[in-house]
């Protein structure tokens, strides 16, 4: 069965996602390790693809058993992030089958992005899928799912461009920066980092005619990067001076806190685009006079269905793609039945031909065998075509049951849909912590009590989360391993009154 778990910007603060996605690159291998440790039982998963981007962590799996499958994922994420299993379960949502298909198609098309319609997400999903396939982690089910998602994402981009209309998130961010600065002409720009976002940023700045672009990287790769892209590198020891002179800073290294308030105390008005999930900024930078910070959350764009007709068309295309995937899987369900029938008929024919060869000459036997094979091919064609039509019309289960009744061969796969009866949301997704055995600690359980105080049921408060998730965390969050971290004590009332303070509190905890 197709199962997925997701933790996204739709229901989590970006700071929480930051903690969850630490070392997410090793998650595919760790899932395999967890399965290997449980080798005494039948494997819960046949294949998996991990999709990790700047605003989501999702795992798509071909599962034999629902509960055991999601439990493997929770354990693996707990190991890679350094967070407890209970907290990991609180962060994720899960779904099976149709809602999973629809969600992946939306994600790949850019309709679930912070900047709706942005172009990078499709490439990121494809890269993660190709990596999983190269490692032998995918199955026919997952291959079909992702290949169709890519095909329909291309249709959405061509036939119904929405929001950013296939442009990069960096391009949209620079649009906002241009509006805030009254244009980019003559502005001095500093780019922090040499990764994908830095490459996109430099290319977009060059396209817009910005001439003064400096690049800095703590890894030492800035000179080579600058030479390749026709810009200048910040000289050794020159970062503070470059910050003082910059009108616009693109912070996109994702290496953790690397820019501090004291570096901009003498700077003039500065706009910083904080484009990495693992923020490059000390949280107090947001409070520095003359410095304005735009983060990923500030770039989120919301579309009104009525105001964006293309979105309606895009959703119709995605619905068509999801229907095609369901039809394909229904047809695949009858394939084993047809294979079993062909095998049984071929065995009978082989036995009869072998008997014939004992009683007749080879020439006669060869002629009879050719005739038998032709007759069997014609006889089998009609049932096979009828089976496919029945499956395409949603009658695969009835066909498989009838096949078992008539021929006495059980070809149904043993896959348990154990999530039946669980409470799901309107989109078919459910909170993952409600699908696994309850072992939630007192601190973790207290997070769900936010509901009774009026907070959204799916939201986690950053400050409360930081105090729990970052305490004795084995993952390095910029303060050394096994550091005991305590977020500043801030009254819950002030959090409710000033939601804008929440990212800073999480940042201080980081």
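-> sequence recovered:
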């Amino acid at each position: 069965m197709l199962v997925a778990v997701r933790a996204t910007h739709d229901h989590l603060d970006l700071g929480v996602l930051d903690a969850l996605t630490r070392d997410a690159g090793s998650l595919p291998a760790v899932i395999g390790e967890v399965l290997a440790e449980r080798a005494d039982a039948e494997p819960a998963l046949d294949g998996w693809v991990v999709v990790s981007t700047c605003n989501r962590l999702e795992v798509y799996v071909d599962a034999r058993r629902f509960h055991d499958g999601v439990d493997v994922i929770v354990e693996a994420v707990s190991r890679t992030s350094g967070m407890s299993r209970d907290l990991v379960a609180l962060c994720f949502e899960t779904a099976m089958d149709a809602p999973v298909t629809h969600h992946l198609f939306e994600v790949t098309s850019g309709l679930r992005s912070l900047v709706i319609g942005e172009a990078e997400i499709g490439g990121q999903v494809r890269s993660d899928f190709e990596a999983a396939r190269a490692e032998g982690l995918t199955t026919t089910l997952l291959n079909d799912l992702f290949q169709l998602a890519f095909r329909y994402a291309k249709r959405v981009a061509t036939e119904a461009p929405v929001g950013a209309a296939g442009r990069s998130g960096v391009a949209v961010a620079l649009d906002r920066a241009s509006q805030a600065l009254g244009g980019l002409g003559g502005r001095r720009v500093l780019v922090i980092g040499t990764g994908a976002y830095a490459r996109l940023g430099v290319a977009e700045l060059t396209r817009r005619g910005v001439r003064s672009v400096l690049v800095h990287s703590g890894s030492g790769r800035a000179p080579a990067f600058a030479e390749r892209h026709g810009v200048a590198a910040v000289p050794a020891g020159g970062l503070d001076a470059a910050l003082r002179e910059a009108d616009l800073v693109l912070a996109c290294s994702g290496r953790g806190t690397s820019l501090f308030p004291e570096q901009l105390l003498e700077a003039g008005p500065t706009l910083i685009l904080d484009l990495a999930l693992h923020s490059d900024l000390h949280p107090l930078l947001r409070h520095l006079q003359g410095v304005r910070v735009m983060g990923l959350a500030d770039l989120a764009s919301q579309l009104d269905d009525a105001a964006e007709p293309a979105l309606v068309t895009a959703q119709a295309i995605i619905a068509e793609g999801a229907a095609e995937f369901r039809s394909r899987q229904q047809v695949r369900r009858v394939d084993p039945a047809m294979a079993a029938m062909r095998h049984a008929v071929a065995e009978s024919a082989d036995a009869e031909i072998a008997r014939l060869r004992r009683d007749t000459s080879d020439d006669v036997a060869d002629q009879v065998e050719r005739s038998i094979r032709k007759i069997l091919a014609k006889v089998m064609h009609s049932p096979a075509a009828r089976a496919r039509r029945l499956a395409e019309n949603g009658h695969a289960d009835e066909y498989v049951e009838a096949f078992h009744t008539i021929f006495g061969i059980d070809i149904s796969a043993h896959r348990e849909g154990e999530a039946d009866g669980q409470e799901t949301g309107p989109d078919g997704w459910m909170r993952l912590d409600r699908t696994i055995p309850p072992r939630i600690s007192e601190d973790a359980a207290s997070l769900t009590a936010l509901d009774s105080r009026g907070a959204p049921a799916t939201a986690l408060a950053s400050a409360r989360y930081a105090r729990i998730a970052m305490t004795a965390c084995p993952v390095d969050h910029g303060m050394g391993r096994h550091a005991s971290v305590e977020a500043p004590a801030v009254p819950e009332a002030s959090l409710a009154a000033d939601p804008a303070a929440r990212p800073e509190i999480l940042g201080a905890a980081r």
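Residues 156 and 315 are 9 Å apart (CA to CA).
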